[in-house]
Amino acid sequence: NPTELCHGVSLTDACVGWETTERMLRHGHEAMCKATTEA
């Protein structure tokens, strides 16, 4: 329900814990580094 959304609040806060968030950020960073080196 869009009326329940708050500006600046992540939709995944309750769904994704810190360990998963950290893993996703590290994976994304590695993928971006690889993509920019290969370009």
Could you give a short description of this structure?
The chain contains 1 helix and no strands. The chain has one helix at 18-38. The chain starts with 17 loop residues before the first helix and ends with a helix.
Question: Your description of this structure?
Answer:
This protein is mostly helical. The protein has one domain. It contains one helix and no strands. The longest helix has 21 residues, at 18-38. The N and C termini lie far apart (41 Å).
Question: Which labels suit this protein?
Answer:
single chain, mainly alpha, 1 helix, 54% helix
Rg calc: 15 Å
Largest sheet: none
Instruction: Tally the beta strands.
Output: 0
Can you tell me the overall shape?
elongated
Write the element-wise H/E pattern from the N-terminal end onward: H
> Portion of residues in helices?
40-55%
Number of domains: 1
List the helices and strands and how they pair.
Elements: H1 18-38
